[in-house]
Inverse folding.
């Protein structure tokens, strides 16, 4: 799995909660590569409500987690979330166009240290740090479900260190 020629990132799989177009309960993220970052716009609605008019914090965390899944595609690394930390800086308002940005701060063997932000125009709504751990195909065999064909190459072991990337390059 890799970004398309136009920079858009294909869904992890059609029913992915974050980006799968066939998941009626999903967030429907459309992600794309912008230099060394991954970006996506997100408009949340009443299905995602916590306090009246505000998005549920777990939904915000889910969006950032799946955005990091887009960073994995950009990097060509298959990995899973080991740790996700979110600082909520301002309420995420339903009906507003929110912008997600994610990038890889550094890698260390199997460990990928990812960072992301959620903005509403100029307002920082949330920022996240995550530790992802690279995995191979055996990790996903435990579910017994059929893996998407395009994951085969993605799930090949990757030993090489990734170059450091910064959000502003
Ligand atoms: C690829 C497809 C992705 C598509 C969708 C993307 C959507 C977004 C991503 C997700 O939501 S993934 C779903 C949520 N995550 C999981 O289900 C992962 C569940 N956890 C595991 O399966 C295992 O704990 C894990 C694979 C993460 C690690 O197990 P391992 O047995 O492979 O590794 P190990 O426990 O030996 O840890 C490897 C290193 O990472 C470190 N580590 C692991 N978990 C950690 C943690 N939570 N905090 C800090 N360090 C951690 C660990 O200390 C160690 O460091 P050292 O090598 O320095 O000793």
């Amino acid at each position: 799995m890799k970004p398309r020629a136009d920079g858009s990132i294909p869904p992890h799989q059609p029913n992915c909660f974050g980006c799968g177009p066939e998941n009626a309960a999903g967030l429907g993220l459309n992600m794309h590569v912008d230099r060394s970052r991954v970006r996506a716009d997100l408009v949340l609605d009443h299905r995602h409500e916590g306090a009246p008019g505000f998005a549920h914090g777990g939904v915000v965390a889910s969006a950032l987690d799946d955005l990091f899944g887009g960073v994995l595609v950009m990097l060509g690394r298959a990995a899973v979330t080991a740790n996700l930390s979110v600082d909520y800086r301002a309420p995420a308002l339903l009906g507003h166009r929110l912008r997600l940005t994610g990038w890889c701060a550094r890698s260390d063997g199997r460990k990928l240290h990812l960072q992301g932000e959620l903005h509403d125009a100029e307002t920082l709504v949330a920022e996240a740090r995550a530790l992802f751990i690279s995995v191979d195909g055996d990790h996903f065999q435990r579910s017994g479900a059929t893996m998407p064909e395009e994951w085969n190459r993605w799930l090949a072991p990757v030993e090489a260190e990734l170059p450091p990337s910064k959000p502003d390059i």
